[in-house]
UniProtKB/TrEMBL annotation:
CDD domains listed in its UniProt record: NAT_SF
Location of the N-acetyltransferase domain: 1-135
PROSITE patterns assigned to the protein according to its UniProt record, in alphabetical order: GNAT
Protein name: N-acetyltransferase domain-containing protein
Highest taxon of source: Bacteria
Gene source species: Cryptosporangium minutisporangium
Pfam families reported for this sequence: Acetyltransf_7
InterPro entries: Acyl_CoA_acyltransferase (IPR016181), GNAT_dom (IPR000182)
Length: 269
């Protein structure tokens, strides 16, 4: 096992495709892997120069996020995943760690052994925007620096301009205001459906309004995003024709408090 290098990008991409993860914001996306490598810790497990698996962590406002843990199916159940996770997180009692676990039967037990406990499901939803309430809050486009500063003020932690710059290559970043006060900050990427990649909104009382305002401001017919099962807008989304396409299970150390009114990126927090 060693730190991931630029020369590993093709191998990481191959493992990512082999485990059916090919979307943007995954190891199939060189810009994403470069962002993780430059701002977090990324490891590869190699045998004879071949990448068998990769894993990474990233600092976020809520603690250290395990962004990825993927092992080539030809090498499953041989201890590679356990070894990668153990190298990143050697101490099961360490604080402030979390991840969004897939439903793969080996994933959740691995994280439980590493000291994390299961919490709410992170729902991958998508749907049409035409039956959603129109947002009454103001949404302003901002650059990566302003978005990162706003997120840091709202959610805590160090500003992460690199994360917003990643979304801004092709996408947009924005703040949602209630009069002059910023109540949420987010980013979106184009596509069909468009993706609301993140929306930090620590106040659950403001979360539904902020989400509807952000979606309305995108001006798209269909949108996809990942939100906590207890999010206050879930029932209205389902009533408006949204579907739950998939879900992850949030795994966290007990000291991590993830706001239920935010929209999360499984790979960037
Ligand atoms: C999840 C994943 C990373 C695990 O990697 P791996 O190298 O196969 O895992 P390991 O061999 O180190 O360990 C698997 C452990 O899970 C255990 N396990 C497997 N299925 C289990 C089950 N249903 N219940 C309990 N434990 C289970 C195995 O017994 C093994 O433990 P052991 O070594 O004590 O026997 C790998 O399966 C993978 O890439 N899956 C597809 C992608 C994915 O979903 N990744 C997780 C992203 S959140």
């Amino acid at each position: 096992m060693r730190a991931a290098e630029v020369g590993d990008l093709a191998g990481i991409r191959a493992v990512t495709f082999a485990t059916d993860q090919s979307e943007p914001g995954s190891g199939a996306d060189a810009a994403y892997v470069e962002l993780i490598r430059s701002t977090g810790t990324a490891l590869v497990a190699v045998q004879d120069d071949r990448v068998l698996g990769w894993a990474a962590t990233l600092p976020t406002p809520h603690g250290a996020l395990l962004t990825d843990l993927f092992v080539d199916p030809v090498a499953h159940a041989r201890g590679v995943g356990t070894a990668l996770l153990g190298a990143l997180w050697p101490t099961p009692s360490a604080r402030r760690r979390y991840t969004f676990s897939s439903k793969h039967p080996a994933a959740l037990p691995l994280y439980a052994r590493a000291g994390l406990v299961p919490s709410w499901p992170l729902l991958y939803v998508s749907g049409p925007t035409d039956r959603l309430p129109l947002g009454v809050l103001r949404v302003d486009r901002v650059d990566a620096g302003a978005a990162a500063a706003a997120e840091s003020r709202l959610a805590g932690g160090e500003p992460r301009p690199g994360v917003f710059a990643y979304y801004l290559s092709g996408g947009e970043a924005f703040v949602v205001r209630d009069r002059a006060r910023v109540i949420a900050v987010g980013a979106a990427q184009p596509g069909d459906p468009a993706v609301l990649a993140r929306l930090a909104c620590p106040d659950p009382g403001a979360a539904a309004g902020a989400l509807f305002a952000a979606v309305a401001a995108l001006g798209v017919d269909r949108v996809a995003f990942c939100l906590p099962g207890p999010h206050p807008a879930l029932r209205r989304l389902l009533a408006a024709g949204f579907r739950v396409d998939d879900f992850d299970v949030t795994m966290r150390t007990p000291d991590v408090a993830l706001p239920i009114g935010s929209v999360y990126s499984p790979g960037l927090g």
